[in-house]
């Protein structure tokens, strides 16, 4: 009895201390289920990954299947099942290496059809809520206001767009945690600073390598804050500079080490080139994006994404906060946190400059087009879609809009009313998009896995009779082949080529032609019907037209 009472007291104490985080995490999980449905949480439900919201997501799932089927190697992130005989890192299929490695360890006890993306989704929403609540707790005293504020972080266009389109990049807690470090840096001893940023450096490649760029920018703001903190843990400039170097080294060294462990530096077939000018952020994207909500639809220029739109509710909330600050003529919130404000402002400016790329546009019109040395552009092009760094700016705007007028202690109820109203507008603005996403993700569809003449039973017989171990697609890998790739992975067969996040150097006609003229008796060759010209008669392969595909083997049918 005494033990139970003590346990209850501990539980109540834990809840009392972390109730904002707990409530926000629960809210995040509820939002996830309402938007995407509960069926995604079934790890054996894989059909939605083939007919879901994006072919990118099919790529992420098949990347996991290929990694799971591959033998363990070192570096541990390499696999050869999708690009046989070449190896490629799990990084280049965007399959969330953190979960892929963990579940590959458990693979012997997992069912053949298994996916972890539903678990990743609900965990991500919960973590986004937890970290948002921790940030808002520093400035807001009302539990209701903290939870209301955290809803903006979880139900944003950036979250809803990324999840189950590019779900690794929905882990915006990977942005919020480093921002939180800027806020608490004065409370962190040197060891804690170095360890914290070392962990972030490890996590970046394990979640998605883009976070190296995002969190690297936030780290610059963190270092600026340390250097400005004359009354922080490090009193003199020498100590502050040494701390800055230690933190930077911890982040860079741990990030590079994890990239190496995951096989990012292996002689890869992934194509890391790209033109950053094609992916820059238009300066009006925060309020004027195509298909983003009710209101941008009526504006004259719209860009083709909705992942940089703040939302009408957040725009209203930002305006209300600015009006309240100007009306009260109260800047104590900023004066008391001058160094933090400078550090966050610097982070915002750097993130925005990187997001805009060398070609800065406003409303579709070029404002500035500058050039940089080739070696910088080559590094920059590895990340390619640098407009995504504007997510850092977006969440800094969220924090400002929700917290910057918290100096007004007497009208907490008014702040609550403003937050409720703004969130209602935000939800209204997003509702058509949420309904669309919800409908697509939970739709029951009859997925046509193969051509009627190339069904599972036929392939099983063909593979058994001819001792097939490899499937060779060509001339160019397209998502027409995705179900066949899934079939190959379910039967532990290899494939020659796959769509990688950065492009594959094997995905070209010349490589395929070379493979055809060096045929292998253990390979099944598959060409789309529209590419019948590649079914060469003189390459030693016997071809069979099955309708949608032309298939070939070495030897007699």
Cα-atom radius of gyration:
26 Å
Average pLDDT, rounded to a whole number, is 85
Low-confidence stretches: 445-452
Please report the distance between the alpha carbons of the first and last residues: 76 Å
Main sheet record = 5 strands, mixed
The coarse silhouette is elongated
Please tally the helical runs, counting DSSP H or I stretches of 4 or more residues: 20
- Main-sheet strand order equals 6-5-7-9-8
**SS-based structural class?**
alpha/beta
Chain oligomer state:
single chain
**Helical residue percent band:** 40-55%
What portion of residues belong to β-strands? 5-15%
Number of E strands: 9
Series of secondary-structure elements, N-terminal to C-terminal: HHHEEHHHHHHHHHHHEEHHHHEHEHEEE
List keywords for this structure.
about 550 residues; alpha/beta; five-stranded mixed sheet; two-stranded antiparallel sheet; 20 helices; 9 strands; about 55% helix
